[in-house]
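Could you join me in thinking about how sequence relates to backbone shape in a protein? Would you write everything just below, so we can both look at the same thing?
***
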Amino acid sequence: MKAQILVKPYELAYTDIQIPACKDDEVLVKINTSCICNGSDPTIFKGIHWNEFPVVFGHEACGVIVEKGKQVMDFNIGDRVAWWFAMGAFAEYVCVCPQNVAMVKVPGAMPDCEAPILELVGATSRAVDAAGIKEGSRVLIIGLGPSGLIMSQLSKCLKAEKVFGWDLYGMRRNLGLKLGCDKTFDNGLEDVTAKTLEWTDEADVVIDAFGDDLLPGSPTLNRGMEVIKTGGTIISYGHPRVRSLDVYEFQKKNLTLKGPNNDIPSLRIWYKRALEYYEKGELDLSPLITGNISLSQVPEALDLVVNSRDTHLKIIVDNSIK
């Protein structure tokens, strides 16, 4: 089968490898579509937060189970599935152990082009769960990339009173207004905190969904602290290597800083809720798609999501394209 192999940091090879053998606790999935992860894939490509090489690159995928091990009970041959988290998405086949991931059956009405984004729905729901968003919450999402745009919708599904977003790019801010945000602001502006507070009361929750911080002095968290209430919660979700944090302000406001909830059983519950939101039309994934490529074009797509953030969100890898 064809696959994109990350041989070592910064080196991808599009090559033929053996279809993996399915173990007793695994399913073999014929991948229909996958997609570039805007956050994790660029860092894994650089060897950041990843040290196992060579590896089949990619982790957001959807496909049909064509073989299953004798220990697998909850999934069957013919099921169309997506999951969080397992490497091996940029290939024609992958083996996944359902016990080790959060795997879901893809709704019949969901097209293949949207289905691999379910991996990101699982990832973002971890942050929303940790944030404890409830009816009446005021939520600030810093970074309206694919993750932030899903979080904005999930926040509204949970009856948040106000959801506002910060992003550097006009395209993403405009899309945020269509996908859950009541108001969006350019956090490249010095007065972004004043403008935000003119519009709303202080936030109960701040979710930092920024990736590599493009702002001098990495002020993302500190600016977020300016608009959060005393006793509020900050969720650190993005994959930055450096963030500055004014510890005095953090302590003065008696804030809580947490990461996403990585508990797999909880995530499986969240996945079911998110699919219900999707089927009711409250979670829209189609506007996130800004490209469609073949498996051989993964390197070019990776470059686009890193260097053309003002025009590209989710790029779908379609294995039917040769």
Remarks:
- The chain has two domains: 2-114+286-318, 121-258.
- The longest helix spans residues 264-279.
